[in-house]
Amino acid sequence: MVDEAAFPRPILTIDVILLTLGAEGLRVGLISRAGAPYAGRLALIGGYVHLEEDSDAEAAARRIVAAKAGLAHVFLEQLQTFSGRARDPRGWSATVAYYGLCPPGDLEGAKDVIFRSADNPGPLAFDHAEILAAALARLRGKGAYSTLPAFLLPPTFTLSQLHDAYERAMGQPINESAFRRKISELDILERVDGAFSRATARPAMLYRLRARTVQAFDRRI
Amino acid sequence: MVDEAAFPRPILTIDVILLTLGAEGLRVGLISRAGAPYAGRLALIGGYVHLEEDSDAEAAARRIVAAKAGLAHVFLEQLQTFSGRARDPRGWSATVAYYGLCPPGDLEGAKDVIFRSADNPGPLAFDHAEILAAALARLRGKGAYSTLPAFLLPPTFTLSQLHDAYERAMGQPINESAFRRKISELDILERVDGAFSRATARPAMLYRLRARTVQAFDRRI
DNA sequence: AGAATAGTGTCTCTCAGACAATATAGG
DNA sequence: CCTATATTGTCTGAGAGACACTATTCT
């Protein structure tokens, strides 16, 4: 890093790929763009960094998700930075992309957010389709050997729900007994008092994650 | 991304963690800083984005590595963006970090670059120690299930050299016969005519990577 | 009792690590 | 032949998938 402070500075933005679980699989939260460019197009939840307010890019992402989707607590992880002269007609820009995972129940207050199938969201503004695809690839890659999919669930959940979250996040079936075996061997969950009861079936034990952060495993789940 | 073009723009830089293989393990290429801040301290190879010249951040990274380390062809992959108010005394900044892998032989022309043990490089400028640690973690994590360590070798190599590169990159022993078995099953290498001959031992067959890009595996190597 | 979901036990096949055995060069 | 490195073969234990079986609640 050499001192050449006179260089023109590029535009720096933040984009959040907000993902949640729907009945059919992953869903992504989008916002309809008010102004040009791409007015009326759906876009990822994004904004500028506020230098006085935001201590770093992740703080900016949290502020933006809170402001635009009304979400106070989201699991956020940096995905990648997308940059270049071509991606925004206003000029050379860079956006630091974060993916955010949250349980479906937390999305009541997200009035302006439109949820679409993550795998088939329709046309998006800028290079957001590419960014979304990268987020899905990361989630599916990392989900196979980490607790990432658990952050798509509420704080307490049953093993069946966890299994379901893994299957829906990964988009492929996972052997159930092997899943239970591995989860219990990995010792990443702890029992919570009470049980989750459905309409017409046996109630299941409730668990929560032992750690609040993502845990990666040696082998895939 | 809302239009608020009036916002002050943060400083955006690029940093490259240039890694290569030494006898003792991984080595990182550093440059002694000429000016303030951190004058005289060792720092990662970095610089500003040139908006007219660089089509995107990776192009900027390539230009910077070519200019400061004299390397025309390096394997580069984006690591992460580090940002915040505190990391640079000159103000809120963001740096897009790339790690670069290259074979030891390519480093003849890198006059200004100082190589240090990657695991113990001594004090570095800015938050570069943290960035380097993240690069090593990524290389070791991803190296276990990809062809990443092969990019620390010249274009053609023997299986023993590849095995050695994996062990040195990962910092831990790898069972040799299992390694050979997995490599051959994965079908990522192809034979090259000729053989590599040492002083006083059996010459070994030469291989090269089938694909020019990193290949990830299902299971760890 | 029967339906529906939760949870367990077990069999088999594959794969990874350990390590022995064999191969091929130079001295 | 001896040494050093390369390469292959085999044995064994752990783990993953398949799937049947048991458990518990509600109607």
What can you see in these coordinates?
Two copies of one chain form a homodimer. With 221 residues, chain A is an alpha+beta fold. Chain A has two domains: 4-143, Nucleoside Triphosphate Pyrophosphohydrolase; 148-209, Arc Repressor Mutant, subunit A (Orthogonal Bundle). In chain A, 24% of the residues lie in helices and 29% in strands. In chain A, strands 1, 2, 3, 4, 5, 6 and 7 form a seven-stranded mixed β-sheet that branches. In chain A, a hairpin with a 2-residue loop joins strand 1 (11-22) and strand 2 (25-32). The longest helix of chain A is centred in the middle third of the chain and has 16 residues, at 128-143. Chain A is elongated and about 60 Å long. The N and C termini of chain A lie far apart (41 Å). Chains A and B meet through strand 1, strand 4, strand 5 and strand 6 of A and strand 1, strand 4, strand 5 and strand 6 of B. The first copy, chain A, binds a DNA duplex (27 and 27 nucleotides) through residues 158-160, 175-178, 180-182, 185, 197-205, 219.
SSE layout and pairing:
2 copies of one chain form a homodimer.
Chain A: E1 11-22, E2 25-32, E3 42-43, E4 45-48, H1 57-69, E5 75-84, E6 93-101, E7 114-117, H2 128-143, H3 159-170, H4 176-186, E8 189-196, E9 204-209
Chain A binds a DNA duplex (27 and 27 nucleotides) through residues 158-160, 175-178, 180-182, 185, 197-205, 219.
